[in-house]
Design a protein that fits this description.
By secondary structure, the protein is α/β, with parallel strands linked by helices. The protein has three domains: about 180 residues, 3-Layer(aba) Sandwich (Rossmann fold); about 160 residues, TPP-binding domain (Rossmann fold); about 190 residues, Rossmann fold, CATH 3.40.50. It contains 22 helices and 19 strands. Strands 3-2-4-5-7-6 form a six-stranded parallel sheet, with helices on both faces. The longest helix is centred in the middle third of the chain and has 22 residues. The protein is globular. The structure holds adenosine-5'-diphosphate, ligand TZD and magnesium ion.
């Protein structure tokens, strides 16, 4: 090619166009694992100023991208190789979609001609077809001049409406396709207003106000959709103007401080059972809320729901919604606030009084448990220490997974700022820990405390090397009770294998961190735990604290034992 003067035109290629398209849209971090055909893509992206974090397994990179999406409202980017790398990343993409977080999984793939004739390429797989049912949208780009549009579609699909995961299929040959540089630059798209405000209909707002006015025992439930929305001031204003008690779902903790006077978290059962009108703000009536019916809701099935959600199809998913408010959290709450005015009548003391009595008595019960000095430590003793440490560091990011380790930490550790608590999400999935911790450190720059069951940690434990390699301020505390739920199970067959839920006794997880140059600590008492974690949080040095927990202290499945089918038939 030559221009009018006869000098060669400048050229670009698929590699450069993809990197330029991401940068143009402010997507400046990639989480991934290198290999054919994306090794050079990662190198070149790094060279172009994108932060490229290489992981030890794609699932952890994907979980990091998912959390980056939750924290930033921009799609987290995960980059993988074909077939097995793609499949490893796909679990995280499905997890992001399930949790309504924006993420884009970009995977290299084999050429269509070979894949479609099943000719047996290196890591051959029809990835697009496999991804489709597991994410919000899936696209393939075949021509370099379509990269701009392809990336734009992926971004818009990920963040608009209900956010979710998007798969972007990149056949290897696309990366090497060459085109005129100026034409290439023109083909890129900067996505304008990717997640437009969605304003609720005025009639829907009036309907919601009428239902709220009829309430004697109202309750607000804040979900992680409200946390995601980053409408923190409006959420606070709505809760405080309404005067209603509120319950935060797990990852909505801190949207308003857990020690806020209107928080009903310490009287959760009573609040759910007795409330007559419940306003759901970016939360779903799924298993985490007993599907909005049954004993937990007081059996009478008389609760009326107002539901704010950006996804119209969420309404009536489990029970009738008396006042559906379809729109984004900020627009919906602002519209409600305008209608509520300055003279909104707050709930009566007949409701607030008994709730606060219940709350106080539960808090007193909890306080004594937290101070116990049992040896070995039980969950409460260890969590009492970590609760103080988080209270002293409101900006610290808290990552949490496990069963007992999760359920108890969630109720014991107060959060005081929005989007600081990252956990297992809607699926209750183990293995999100290290990916979340890495993304939390990378996206916020704040110190991270990851409270991990010993089983939960194992799913992503190899990423301690990644944490050391990037020198991230992550302190992992492993609640080491020698197994899943407890370390005390026995094999009833009499065989020599240990029981299915127990691990090597007294394993030294702290030495895993030391192996890669980080700090390890082995602690058996609350004082030792306090010292080790404070030191790690102050220094920012990658640290793993192996906290020995009484192996008999946990309960089966933590708080959700009721979901665990158990055989009542004895064959012996
Ligand atoms: P939790 O587990 O905390 O109850 P869920 O993940 O079940 O929360 O629910 C989050 C809900 O928030 C989803 O139904 C999603 O559609 C909705 N959502 C996400 N972002 C927004 C937003 N900006 N405005 C309104 N709703 C949103
Ligand atoms: N696999 C995946 C991907 N997610 C899961 N949730 C499970 C398996 C099942 N599971 C739980 O639900 S919790 C858990 C498993 C394996 C581990 C609990 O043990 P832990 O925590 O050591 O992490 P505690 O403190 O011992 O209860
Ligand atoms: Mg355990």
């Amino acid at each position: 090619m030559t221009d009018n003067e006869g000098t060669p035109d400048a050229l670009t290629d698929g590699f450069h166009l993809l990197i330029d398209a991401l940068k143009l849209n402010d997507l400046n971090t990639i989480y991934g694992v290198p290999g054919i055909p994306v090794t050079d893509l990662g190198r070149m992206a790094q060279d172009a100023g994108i932060r490229v974090l290489s992981f030890r397994h794609e699932q952890n990179a994907g979980n990091a991208a998912a959390i980056a999406g939750f924290l930033t409202k921009k799609p987290g980017i995960c980059l993988t190789v074909s077939a097995p790398g793609f499949l490893n990343g796909l679990t995280a993409l499905a997890h992001a979609t399930t949790n309504c977080w924006p993420m884009i999984l970009i995977s290299g793939s084999s050429e269509r001609e070979v894949v479609d004739l099943l000719q047996g390429d290196y890591e051959e797989m029809d990835q697009l077809a496999i991804a489709k049912p597991l994410c919000k949208a899936a696209y393939r780009i075949l021509h370099a001049e379509d990269i701009g549009i392809g990336v734009a579609r992926a971004i818009r699909s990920a963040v608009s409406g209900r956010p979710g995961g998007v798969y972007l299929d990149i056949p290897g040959a696309l990366l090497g396709q060459v085109m005129d540089e100026a034409e290439g630059a023109k083909s890129l798209v900067k996505v304008i207003d990717p997640a437009p405000a969605q304003i609720p209909a005025p009639s829907a707002v009036s309907r919601a106000i009428e239902v709220m006015k009829g309430a004697k025992k109202p309750l607000i439930i804040l979900g992680k959709g409200a946390a995601y929305a980053q409408a923190d001031e409006v959420v606070r204003e709505f809760v405080e103007t309404s005067g209603m008690p509120f319950l935060p779902m797990s990852m909505a903790k801190g949207l308003l401080p857990d020690n806020h006077q209107q928080s009903a978290a310490a009287a959760r059962s009573m609040a759910l059972k007795e409330s007559d009108v419940v306003i759901m703000v970016g939360a779903r009536l799924n298993w985490l809320l007993s599907h909005g019916k049954g004993k937990q809701w007081g059996d009478a099935h008389s609760t009326k729901f107002v539901q704010i959600d950006i996804e119209p199809r969420e309404m009536d998913s489990n029970v009738e919604i008396a006042a559906p408010l379809v729109g984004d959290v900020e627009s919906c709450l602002s519209a409600l606030l305008t209608e509520m005015g300055s003279s909104w009548e707050k709930p009566s003391e007949d409701w607030l009084g008994p709730l606060s009595v219940k709350k106080e008595s539960n808090l007193v019960k909890m306080a004594s448990k937290l101070l116990n000095n049992s040896n070995p430590m039980d969950y409460h003793a260890a969590l009492g220490v970590l609760r103080e440490i988080i209270a002293e560091r409101p900006d610290a990011m808290l990552v949490n997974e496990g069963a007992n380790t999760l359920d108890l930490a969630r109720s014991i550790i107060n959060m005081s700022k929005p989007r600081k608590r990252l956990d297992v999400g809607t699926w209750g999935v183990m293995g999100v820990g290290m990916g979340s911790a890495i993304a939390a450190a990378v996206e916020t720059g704040n110190p991270v405390l990851a409270i991990e069951g010993d089983s939960a940690f194992g799913f992503s434990g190899m990423e301690v090397e990644t944490i050391c390699r990037y020198n991230l301020p992550v302190c992992i505390v492993i609640f080491n009770n020698n197994g899943i739920y407890r370390g005390t199970d026995v094999n009833t067959s009499g065989g020599s294998d240990v029981a299915t839920t127990v691990f090597v006794k007294d394993a030294r997880y702290d030495q895993m961190m030391e192996a890669f140059g980080g700090a390890g600590a082995y602690v058996t008492s609350p004082d030792e735990l306090r010292r080790a974690v404070n030191e790690a949080m102050d220094s920012g040095r990658p640290t793993l604290v192996n906290a020995v927990i009484d192996e008999a202290a946990g309960s089966e499945s933590g708080n959700i034992g009721s979901l665990n089918p158990q055989s009542v038939v004895s064959k012996k």
